[in-house]
Amino acid sequence: MPSRLPDRFRDELQRSEIPNHALLNVVHIPASAAASPIRLIMRRFLIALILLLMVTLIAYFDEGGYSEPLTFIDALYYSAVSLSTTGYGDITPVTQFARLINIFIVTPLRVAFLILLVGTTLSVLTEESRKAWQIQRWRKKMRNHTIVIGYGTKGRSAVSALLADGVAPKEIVVIDTDRSVLEVAESQGLVTVNGSATRSEVLKLAGVSKAKAIVVAPSTDDTAVLVTLSVRELAPSAWVVASVRESENQHLLEQSGADSVVISSETAGRMLGLATVTPSVVEMMEDLLSPDEGFSVAERPVAEDEVGANPRHLADIVLGVVRSGELYRIDSLEAETVEPGDRLLYVRRVFSDDIKDH
């Protein structure tokens, strides 16, 4: 193990030194709505007029420095042909002062004017620079975010639950190899990383070592095990939740470092079985699992006036008590009395105002 540490540190250093412009097709930060094209064109046109007026005034107030006395119209004409590099040569600077003004003021303004003429190219360069700067700022500031690996059915459902529970979109990072599904995630305002989560480089780009929670939801169980191993190695303190299709693979994910494992096939099978016998139970379960409507299973800290009470006698319908990170069901001996620092797992009624707030 000691011999591997220098290599890992060197790899981390190399990843941190990657130029931000090299990540433009890998990391995507949600941006605000783009300005109207008409507004952009009008803004460039206004800047061009200002430059034209500046050169006009410079030439007009130094009328004696040119080959002939200048009226304001002459100065405007000279400004137009000079900035556009047409240069007919009928009006030229003749004094030393006028020529210095042309070298140090008019020439830079002419360059700026030409840049405006090729504004499309400038716009592209500016947009790429803005995105590179945005990625750089995000990589420095990202902390306590949630990473969702795999944006298939399970990953999208996990993100929907997070958003409905009040997590800000900018605090969720989605990793996937499918560019089309990442575009869907971007439309929701999520940060996306294009790449395979089996590679530590991709996980590091997503800031896995600084993440608060990580949802592992790939399409296959073997990929889930490999990703969980990599995640746990890079983020030993993060809360890792993994999804597995078959129950016989649950222990592999737990041994790989997953704090919680959800068996998707068994959960769906139980719901199907219940639906054939007691469909109303399935309807209620779906209601509890949907945080944005009806009833929802939620967690909250214990109030001061609730300490020492039996959770069965509280106003909320309490399902369990979380103490020191351990969940005790409501029928266990440990959950008979509420202690300071406990958190209650309870059934919360979601009102329309709560939905609007989210």
UniProtKB/TrEMBL annotation:
The keyword DNA repair does not apply. The chain crosses the membrane at residues 45-61, 100-125. PROSITE patterns: RCK_N. It is a multi-pass membrane protein. One of its GO terms (biological process) is monoatomic ion transmembrane transport. Residues 143-263 form the RCK N-terminal domain. It is found in: Cell membrane. Pfam families: Ion_trans_2 (PF07885), TrkA_N (PF02254). InterPro entries: K_chnl_dom, NAD(P)-bd_dom_sf, RCK_N, Trk_Ktr_HKT_K-transport. Keywords: Ion channel, Ion transport, Ligase, Membrane, Transmembrane, Transmembrane helix, Transport. It comes from the Bacteria. One of its GO terms (molecular function) is ligase activity. The keyword Transport applies. This is Voltage-gated potassium channel. It comes from Corynebacterium felinum. The lineage of its organism: Bacteria, Bacillati, Actinomycetota, Actinomycetes, Mycobacteriales.
